[in-house]
Amino acid sequence: MPKILIVEDEAAIADTLVYALQAEGFATRWVAVAGEALALLEDEPFDLVILDVGLPDISGFEACKRLRRFSEVPVIFLTARNEEIDRVVGLEIGADDYVTKPFSPREVAARVKVILKRVVPRHAAAPTAADPVGAFQIDLLRYQIHFHGQLLPLTRHEFRLLETLLGQPGRVFSREQLLDALGVAREAGYERNIDSHIKGLRAKLRAVAPATKPIQTHRGLGYSCLLEH
């Protein structure tokens, strides 16, 4: 039974989420502040976190940044704000989805199901820990990738993008397919940010091996990765 941690300071909202998620077969835990949630996440395994942005101790954005220092658990943000910049910022700091209040608890439960389905298959067919892929070394247990023996300082999304490209060298992935690999909903308005993530990845690869160009652009199609030894 998947365990969902709800971090929400409004009891009425938390109650509706608990009811909807339990009706779908999920186990739930509710806390009202980010500090308690982070302590719990360090001590207990959870399958997904539903995180309110407007918490009384620290913001959900800051809580997510701290969470990403030690955990890759999927995160859905809840917020009363609907500005596009907030959605983009939330996704860039490591969230998997973004739901604006007021929302349907059943829709949130459906989004939880979609994310959990994406998370498991994404790694099921991937290389095992520390498998060599050309000049790359992928360590899925530590969420690390080495390039020519050097550890790449990757963000969460950069890791997932590079892992996806390396999983099928030479295959051209569209931006929509790469969004799926990130576990980000396509309607989140995040497609254009794939290009900025790729740009960041290329800069980090060049810092290790300036003459190499493993990530290829296919205009109008997407991106692929060529293996170099």
UniProtKB/TrEMBL annotation:
Species, as recorded: Microbulbifer taiwanensis
- Keyword DNA-binding assigned: yes
What gene name does this entry carry? Answer: creB
Q: Which residues carry this modification: 4-aspartylphosphate?
A: D52
Task: Print the keywords alphabetically.
Answer: DNA-binding, Phosphoprotein
Which ranges does the entry annotate as DNA-binding region? 124-227
* Protein name, UniProt field: Two-component system response regulator CreB
Residue span, OmpR/PhoB-type domain: 124-227
Sorted alphabetically, which InterPro entries does this protein's record hold?
CheY-like_superfamily, OmpR/PhoB-type_DNA-bd, Sig_transdc_resp-reg_C-effctor, Sig_transdc_resp-reg_receiver, WalR-like, WH-like_DNA-bd_sf
What CDD domains is this protein classified in?
trans_reg_C
